[in-house]
Write a structure and sequence with these properties.
Blueprint: E1 10-11, E2 25-28, E3 33-36, E4 58-64, E5 67-72, E6 83-86, H1 96-114, E7 125-127, E8 134-136, E9 142-143, E10 148-157, E11 160-166, E12 176-179, H2 186-198, E13 202-213, E14 218-227, E15 240-247, H3 260-269
Parallel strand pairs: 2-5, 10-14
Antiparallel strand pairs: 1-4, 3-6, 4-5, 7-8, 8-9, 10-11, 10-12, 11-15, 13-14
C-alpha cells in the first residue's frame, strides 16, 4: 500500500532544531499549491537566488532516512526553473517512498497553513517546542495535527462483494466508506455508513487493516462485514450513483495497489479476506 516504503523509514518526530541541508526536500507554497522542479519537489541545494529564504522560514515537517522535508510559507510563483503544481499530485511521484513521504509532509504543511490563529482567543499560534503541536501564548490553547478517522467496508454476501460508485469525482467502483462521528466506534461507523448509503444491515464485522491517507488528512480503518439479509439495495443518491454486487471473478480490475480500498478488493478476489 501507499505507506509501505520499506526499507526506507519515515521519522515523524518533531525535530524543530533540524536545519535544512543538501539532500533535503522543500515544499514551497500555500493552500496546496507548491513549486515543482522537473515534476518533483526541489531539494535544498536547488533553491536559486529567486527564492533566497532566511533560516527561520523553513518549517521542519518530517524525515525519511537522512532526508528531511521542510515547508516554506510563501505563495507558489513559477519562474524559468519552477512550475506550480498541487499536493494532490504527490501520490504519483516516483519512487514510491517519495510519493508517500511528500504527501505526508504536505498533510503537515496544510495543517500549519490552515491553523494560524487560536480558535479560542484569536491570537497567533506558534509551533510547540517539544511535541508536534501549535500553542497559543495568550491563552495556552494547544492544537495537534488534524487526523480524521474513517472506515472502508467490504460488504460481502457469500462469494459476492458490494461495490459502489460516487456521484462525482472518482469514477471507478470502490467500497463503502465514511468518516467516524463523535461517540462512535469504528464498528458503529461501519453499521451506520452501510445503512445510510445502501439501506442494508451487516454483522460479523472484522478488521482487515489500516492506512494513513494524507490527501484527505485521514486515518482509514478497513473492515469486512457480512450481509444480514438478502434485501434490495436502497441507494443514497446524494453521494452515490451506483451500487452493485460482484462475484469474485467479475470484480473490475484497477491498476493501483496503493490504496487500502483496492488492497481489500484484491484480497476478496483471491479469497484472502479475513
Amino acid at each position: 500500500m501507499f505507506q509501505d516504503i520499506q526499507p526506507h523509514v519515515l521519522k515523524n518526530q518533531n525535530d524543530q532544531q533540524r536545519a535544512p541541508r543538501s539532500g533535503d526536500y522543500i515544499l514551497i507554497g500555500r493552500q496546496q499549491q507548491v513549486l515543482l522542479m522537473n515534476g518533483t519537489l526541489p531539494k535544498y541545494e536547488d533553491i536559486d537566488a529567486d527564492y533566497a529564504f532566511s533560516p527561520d522560514q523553513y518549517q521542519y515537517l518530517l524525515a525519511v532516512d537522512q532526508a528531511a522535508f521542510f515547508w516554506v510559507d510563501v505563495d507558489a510563483v513559477a519562474n524559468d526553473n519552477y512550475t506550480v503544481g498541487t499536493t494532490r499530485g504527490f501520490r504519483d511521484l516516483t519512487p514510491a517512498w517519495l510519493a508517500f513521504s511528500s504527501a505526508t509532509a504536505a498533510h503537515l504543511a496544510w495543517w500549519y497553513d490552515t491553523k494560524r490563529f487560536c480558535g479560542h482567543c484569536g491570537q497567533p499560534l506558534h509551533p510547540g517546542a517539544t511535541e508536534r503541536s501549535l500553542v497559543c501564548a495568550a491563552c495556552g490553547q494547544t492544537i495537534y495535527p488534524t487526523i480524521m478517522p474513517a472506515i472502508i467496508v467490504g460488504v460481502t454476501n457469500g462469494d459476492k462483494i458490494l461495490m459502489t460508485k460516487f456521484l462525482s469525482g472518482y469514477n471507478h467502483f470502490s467500497l463503502i466508506s465514511g468518516y467516524t462521528e463523535i461517540g462512535e466506534t469504528f464498528e458503529d461507523t461501519v453499521r451506520r455508513e452501510v445503512f445510510e448509503e445502501v439501506g442494508l444491515e451487516v454483522h460479523n464485522i472484522r478488521y482487515f487493516g489500516s492506512q494513513p491517507w494524507a490527501p484527505s488528512h485521514s486515518l482509514l480503518a478497513g473492515y469486512f462485514a457480512d450481509l444480514n439479509e438478502n434485501v434490495a439495495i436502497e441507494l443514497e443518491t446524494d453521494e452515490l450513483s451506483k451500487a452493485k454486487w460482484f462475484q469474485r471473478d467479475q470484480i473490475p480490475h484497477n491498476d493501483t495497489n496503493t490504496s487500502l480500498t483496492w488492497t481489500m478488493i484484491e484480497a476478496f478476489r483471491h479469497h484472502q479476506e479475513k
